[in-house]
Amino acid sequence: MRFRFLSLFFIAGLILAACSGEGGSGEELVAKGGKKYGGEFKFMSPEKITNLFPVYNADLYTMRVVSQLYDPLLNIDPTTQEVVPCIAESFTVSDDAKVYTLKIRKGIVFHEDDCFGGSKHELDAHDVKFTLDMACSGLKDNQVGYLLVNRVKGGKAFFDKTEGATTIPKEGVEGIKVKDDYTIEITLEESFAGFESVLTHASLGIAPREAFDKYGKDISLHPVGSGPFMLESYSDDKIVMKRNPNYWMKDEFGNQLPFLSKIEMSYAEDKRSELMAFRKKEIDLVLEIPVEEIEHILGTLKEAQEGKNVRHKVDSEHSMSMMYISMANKGEVFSDRNVRKAFNLAVNREEIIDEWLEGEGWPALHGFVPKMNNYPQEKVNGHEFNVEKAKALMASAGYPNGRGFPQMDFYVNATEGSSTHKSCQAVAQQLKDNLGVKLNIVLCTIEEREEAIQNGKAQIWRAGWIADYPDPENFLGLFYGGNIKDNMTMVNAFKFQNEEFDKYFEQALMESDYEKRMELLVKCDQIVVDEAPVMPVLTDDHIVMINARVRNFEANPMESLQLTGVFIKEPKKD
Could you give the percent of the chain with pLDDT greater than 90? Predict the structure, then answer.
């Protein structure tokens, strides 16, 4: 059974008091087109967020907050999946697809901050260069070097020069040049069709050098961006952001964005507590709803008749994501391809979906890249379920029926009883039943998992990847040997290196013919299956539940939060 739906539920219930019509600046604002200013939007995160500086982050949970505080050069339209203007109002590409020239929008100002000495600071090409230089740097906390280091001319040399440094030289990367105050030029080492998609990444949100120079290592909790919201407060319990009254963007009616006065993100102990908070009207949105919990939040018929339920809608999108199990490819055990391959063959992915997750999600049967437009996923021969073959491979590796295989901690960043936890329990149980391998599940946070990866304790761990932009290259880049860095805990943290893969991947980056490029990426995907550096398990449906008072919110395949145009308007009473 598979669940894919887009449905609207309206349940009779109590209506919250009307929201304030005040904007972030304190003045009365009137919106056109039936929209309204004011109101607070609340949601929860299962993961602790400790760093709000864009290039220091690559996980989805942090990006959902960071993307409200900072704007990137370009954006992805969540509906069409096309690249659209943002900080850059336009760009041109040279005939050889190696030089990108971007025109920076005039009149954008950063959030007011002490680092500017009490004056407003207009965002310009110098700020763009600083941000992109940071993303190419070897600073310990930089988590997005994989996006630019091996692509931008001089990026690798700059990374090596600044590795382990605490700041970066002002001359920056050779291939990133300020042509004038509102023009930036980026020269690539090789042509790369579609480089503009990379520039939409939320971790490339534009930041000023002045903030970095003033706050140094404390920049993580002093975000100074140009985004629609500004940080109001940060605590162990929640993050509160308030409306940026000087935001540059307007909607189709000429209304200055954003509409919301505040956004509050708190933390959920588990999914059930998050659902109960929604039911009590303490939050407006629940992300990643387990299918089996939907009926619980809807409540009973009697409760609906008595008006005790929240008016809401449930929205679903097929997610561009992959949940997978990473194995330390340089470790004593998983350096053996036969072991990695055996693990993959011993797991019945369809059974995990049907029996453990009650039909929620889609089994990874065609390689690592999930289904996306125009990618011929069906050409990739995925991992078959074959216990006998898996046992033979384990025996050839010296572990017949699991004898001699060490017990390992299996690091899983999830809350107990969640769908992620259940899927990893299923993997561990199947490996025990089919191969005699014992894995001890260790529930942890992302931060704890990353620490275990860096110090070598984690030999096997749960991981996930959601598209930063809708292109198979974004998924396959995780396996590129050039992206192996000691400080990377998200990209190729499993340390996979394969010359043939790297050759095809590099050719794909330079190939301008779309069909030929897809053929090369399919070859890369097939190598990932054949060499088995990881265990792709499933891709999700992204199911969200929204209070009916929240308008203009849509789920999207990349599971990001697009809140700039969201507004609060109470539904009419029945």
Answer: 66
CA distance 68 to 210: 20
pLDDT range class, residue 305, cuts 50, 70, 90: very low
> Which whole number is the average pLDDT over 283-312?
61
Residue 53's nearest CA partner among 209, 246, 263 is 209
| Sign of the C-alpha dihedral computed for residues 245, 81, 8 and 271 taken in this order | negative
In CATH terms, the fold of domain 40-46+229-318+544-564 is D-Maltodextrin-Binding Protein; domain 2 (3.40.190)
What's the confidence (pLDDT) of residue 156? 93
pLDDT digits (tens, 9 = 90+) for 110-153: 999 999 998 899 999 999 999 999 999 999 899 898 899 989 99
Tens digit of pLDDT for each residue in 184-201? Answer: 999 999 888 779 999 999
Instruction: Give the HSE-up count for residue 359: Cα atoms under 13 Å, Cβ half-sphere.
Output: 8
Phi-psi region of 400 (alpha: psi -120 to 50; beta: other; left: phi over 0): beta
Do 194 and 518 meet the contact criterion of CB atoms below 8 Å apart? no
pLDDT tens track for 335-361? 999 999 999 999 999 999 999 998 888
d(CA 62, CA 309): 30
Give the Cα separation of 191 and 179 in Å (integer). Answer: 21
Cα gap 314→296, rounded to integer Å: 13
Burial class (CB within 10 angstroms; exposed 0-12, middle 13-18, buried 19+) of 244:
buried
Question: Residue 297 — very low, low, confident or very high, per pLDDT cuts 50/70/90?
Answer: low
Q: Which residue has the tokens 């020269």?
A: 187
Report d(CA 259, CA 184) in Å as an integer.
31
Q: Could you please state the CATH topology (level 3) that the domain comprising 71-221 is classified under.
A: Dipeptide-binding Protein; domain 1 (3.90.76)
Q: What is the 3-state secondary structure (H, E, C) of 303-353?
A: HHHCCECCCEEEEEEECCEEEEEEECCCCCCCCCHHHHHHHHHCCCHHHHH
Distance CA 86, CA 554 (A): 19
Domain 321-539 has CATH 3.10.105.10: yes
Amino acid in the structure at residue 313: K
Share of the chain above pLDDT 70, in %: 89
Angle at 414 between CA 340 and CA 232, to 5 degrees: 130
Within 63-136, strands assigned E span 74-76, 83-85, 88-93, 99-104
- Running DSSP on this structure, what letter comes out for residue 87? S
Residue among 534, 291, 331, 512 at smallest CA distance from 427: 534
Q: Give the separation between CA 199 and CA 186, rounded to whole angstroms.
A: 11
Q: Where in the chain are the domains?
A: 40-46+229-318+544-564, 71-221, 321-539
pLDDT, tens digit (0-9, with 9 covering 90-100), for 231-252: 999 999 999 999 999 999 999 9
The pLDDT score that the predictor gives to residue 487 is: 56
Taking the C-alpha atoms of residue 429 and residue 499, their distance in angstroms, rounded to an integer, is 34
